[in-house]
Amino acid sequence: xxxxxxxxxxxxxxxxxxxxxxxxxxxxxxxxxxxxxxxxxxxxxxxxxxxxxxxxxxxxxxxxxxxxxxxxxxxxxxxxxxxxxxxxxxxxxxxxxxxxxxxxxxxxxxxxxxxxxxxxxxxxxxxxxxxxxxxxxxxxxxxxxxxxxxxxxxxxxxxxxxxxxxxxxxxxxxxxxxxxxxxxxxxxxxxxxxxxxxxxxxxxxxxxxxxxxxxxxxxxxxxxxxxxxxxxxxxxxxxxxxxxxxxxxxxxxxxxxxxxxxxxxxxxxxxxxxxxxxxxxxxxxxxxxxxxxxxxxxxxxxxxxxxxxxxxxxxxxxxxxxxxxxxxxxxxxxxxxxxxxxxxxxxxxxxxxxxxxxxxxxxxxxxxxxxxxxxxxxxxxxxxxxxxxxxxxxxxxxxxxxxxxxxxxxxxxxxxxxxxxxxxxxxxxxxxxxxxxxxxxxxxxxxxxxxxxxxxxxxxxxxxxxxxxxxxxxxxxxxxxxxxxxxxxxxxxxxxxxxxxxxxxxxxxxxxxxxxxxxxxxxxxxxxxxxxxxxxxxxxxxxxxxxxxxxxxxxxxxxxxxxxxxxxxxxxxxxxxxxxxxxxxxxxxxxxxxxxxxxxxxxxxxxxxxxxxxxxxxxxxxxxxxxxxxxxxxxxxxxxxxxxxx
Length: 646
Known about the structure:
Low-confidence stretches: 1-7, 21-26, 48-76
Structural class: mainly alpha
Radius of gyration: 33 Å
Largest sheet: 2 strands, antiparallel
Mean pLDDT: 86
Strand order of the largest sheet: 1-2
């Protein structure tokens, strides 16, 4: 029996809401970071699955056979049929003559069944068991073939632990060769991903060859994704050790509980520390000097670079640290755009910016500018952009090179959380409304360095950046407001821009309010903007003139925005054309809280003319009508109306 005073939420069968179901079976694999310099084709190929289906490959084989078969052109249908028949027979003979042909043919049939999406878990397990029995003892022979490699991949992906153990045991000792194959590299990645208990032994087969494999066209993907997506801290440390040079690999045992270069250097004499750091620098340099191999954009390279830069911070001789930092920057400077998308690459470029000269910052700005949109949309890369805004003294250069282009990207960025944050940073700096505490901590890590390398006062620089950006972003709001207010992200952007930007906002305010002239209420298909919760929240905040503070339990007004001007424009644009009828309907519909804020603002800061106008629109009969209805927020509105009429 339901108790009247119980606060417990009723269950679904008691009339409560159905709980949100989580799809616990659906795996959400980590996503590999993509360089901001990558082309669209490279982005599409960045997944861990090969790009062609088995059927497409079969068609390619047929096409190759047709091209290889020499036959005379004939207009006769019979001749063409015989020619095609002969080609198929020849293809079948060639397949049959290959080693393990019968076994592969049988395995393909099972593979085709196992990869069907509509199978139950039990059905797929039965098929995978048959498939493992079919390929047992021959896995190493067929693993590098373009078609049979896919069979083993499916067995790893859908098979039970027994099947995965079988594949791992039969391939042991072959992983280095498989990683360098165009097709079997995907098989190695599947094992790394789905077989964590075999991962360490698998990665140990790369020992002594990590740097060479990293520069290999195919194996580079395996090393990179193993490091970035699937390895634990110990496994990542093992892969990184090869950057430290042969002395570490041969003579320095791994210390318990200590990882990375710091774990190696602790307790060593100064001369050995210098040799190891020198080896680390040389190996990093070898990667950047072979930038055509694609390894420059790999997360493992950026991690090694960041370890080197971190060790330079600990050197006693600051002049020596500065010299070494300058040398490593000159090695990396042409490739900074290929580094900003990973955690350690982003940190490294940010340190280059913080320690750099005005010339260095200008050079980095030039390299980043062509990729500005992708940088804004990437959570790691945008930190480099924010640091660039924080440390550059030449704000005129920033305005011409970055800020104007950034504002122009507003229509493409405002719907994305990262893109919106990039648009707002020049205006709100590190406000907790849009910058997370973790991001603020990361950004603050370069503040102490900036204090020694930048001449301009921090507050002055921030104000100059805000003013330089304001005009362009206000223009974008003016041009795109009608579309932006219909989107949650767009409403957030408009709120912050109007509250924080500097300059004449009348045109932007007009553009924001014009869409509210549409008939109220709207239809099911096309709701009136005020009926959208995010738009109503935007209007309410603008009428309040600031954001609510939980600390002070009050609205903190913006010194860059006049809420009274906005309220007056609201009356003129939304209400004047129909004698306030639309505003009265809003007050008795989904816009109650918005109109309540409008009444308060006009009452406290409005002109005598605006007060008179609003009083006339809400005559005694209208107030009685509001009282007689059960309207959400009606009590608040009535309080504001009473105060207005007092």
